[in-house]
Amino acid sequence: MVELRTAESIPAVLRKHAENTPDRNASAFVTHLDDPTGVTWLSYAELDRRARAAAVQFSAHAAPGDRMLLLHPAGPDFLIALLGCLYAGLVAVPSPLPGRFSHQRRRLRLIAADADVAAVLTADEVHGEVAGWAAEQELGAVRVLTLDSTADADAWTPPALSQETVAVLQYTSGSTGDPKGVVIDHGNILHNAATTIAVTAMRPGCAVGGWLPHFHDMGLMGLLLPPLLAGAASVTTSPMAFLKRPLLWLRMIDRFDIEISAAPDFAYDLCVAKVTDAQLAEIDLSRWRVAIDGSEPVRAAVLTRFQERFAAAGLRPEAVTPSFGMAEATLFVSGAPDTPFVIRRADTDLLARNEFRPAAGDRPGRDLVACGAPVDIEVRIVDPDTAEVLADGQVGEIWLRGRSIGRGYWGRDAGTAGFGAVTSTGDAGYLRTGDLGTLFEGQLYVTGRRKDMLVLRGRNYYPQDIEHELRVHHPELSGRVGACFSVRSRDEAGGGEEVLVVTHEVRGISDPDRLRTLAAAMRLTVAREFGVPGAAVLLLRPGAVARTTSGKVQRAAMRQLFEAGALEPVAEDVDHRHVAGPVAVAAR
């Protein structure tokens, strides 16, 4: 097996696989499980040949170091275009397709402008859609290209590449939705992939796969590139196929002997809700060794439900693997496969004072999932205000240092400063993640996001705790998402203190009186369970809560929408002494 940490570049590794094991399966894209023509396989030799041909084509339109915007549906064309960029020394900018909504098209325009792309790469079946978006956004001389099947792979000339050559700009959503491109070089990917391969015991010839979006860090850096660099097989399908029929994911794992797969927390919950007993009896998950849960807050109840439900299909308890990762660290930071996941019930009163201790007796507690031990990366828990490194069991901001950490944000000096943070003792070179957590008995626990933390009447509250408690007490909210945030009270007598606003999606209720009653009951629940009177509760239509492309709730964006009066609730319960709530529109 090639030693990735000392390899020159990604193409160097893939060319070695093509030379040593040309006929081994490298990647498959699944469209129909029950149709022999519904799986498209590429061998390592074919993957290398097509990547070289794509590099020859792209090099006619851009020079090494130029950025190329990749807009593809799920499928093999994306992988060829991505590798073609890397084989040509170009910088790949993977992004979602333009979409129908104005905010999606605007976000993509911001990415294209921020990266100053030289060309747009896409697939034949969506060329018209992408070309229409490019014309609409007035991208000028930027060409929209599809793969040219006549390009000559033998005409490829290897560019000068090293581990320091930039490979990818991985765009993430900022707190207001403005995208920021994390600069990831070949060395970042090689090092992080080596860590992932070692932790998961990935080996040549094994199958790794799932349905995650190829433009998202968990899909690209978790399910696509590591197996290819390991000499394994990457087996993927489209996210839409999974969302339409969650069983497809589990059947893929069974059919292709997939040993390692990954998904956000909601996907595991969806499988529990949608897979019937009859369907469960038809799948065998005993060969699924590593089921990574990451990308969004990992909920203890979801892990437990999934493990218990699918044990009947052979899923082993140690397979379910909570993890922590982020685009700024390429992807993987911590996780502990092959060991049963750990849940600690943390004392909520101590947690509010930034201390992590198991709750004693009947004291109120919050279940937190251990995200495993950090691997090949330095983790420090730091007071975000003083930069003092904290002891184990104290809650602070998670800081990271290591070769997997990206260089910073493309063209953003201010944001990139967070990649070179210095502790109070002068220890330098850390990434400030913005996540809060603690190290306890060697494992990393993530408690929330610093920017989302609510400070109400001098006490700390995690918004996800309030959102979760509301769903527990009000079944009408089950399966939907919410966003809690604070705004400054307009009550001058109260000193303009921060007050709580709750927004939550609701579905299946059309009676206005029932909706108003639910909103009022939710305010009472918050006051009773947390001792904080809610200034406003707004019930919203499904899809109204702002989320990133990976499904994370954007609470800061929701705060901005609330303050701008841009939310359209179907019902509300508002204390107008503190906030000027919007007027509810009729439920549809």
Automatic annotation (TrEMBL):
Keywords: Ligase. The keyword Membrane does not apply. Pfam families: AMP-binding. One of its GO terms (biological process) is Actinobacterium-type cell wall biogenesis. It is an enzyme of class 6 (ligase). Its EC number is 6.2.1.3. Residues 15-410 form the AMP-dependent synthetase/ligase domain. GO terms for cellular component: plasma membrane. One of its GO terms (molecular function) is long-chain fatty acid-CoA ligase activity. PROSITE patterns: AMP_BINDING. InterPro entries: AMP-bd_C_sf (IPR045851), AMP-binding_CS (IPR020845), AMP-dep_synth/lig_dom (IPR000873), ANL_N_sf (IPR042099), FAAL/FAAC (IPR040097). Coiled coil: none annotated. PANTHER family: DISCO-INTERACTING PROTEIN 2 (PTHR22754:SF32), DISCO-INTERACTING PROTEIN 2 DIP2 -RELATED (PTHR22754). Belongs to the ATP-dependent AMP-binding enzyme family. This is Long-chain-fatty-acid--CoA ligase. The lineage of its organism: Bacteria, environmental samples.
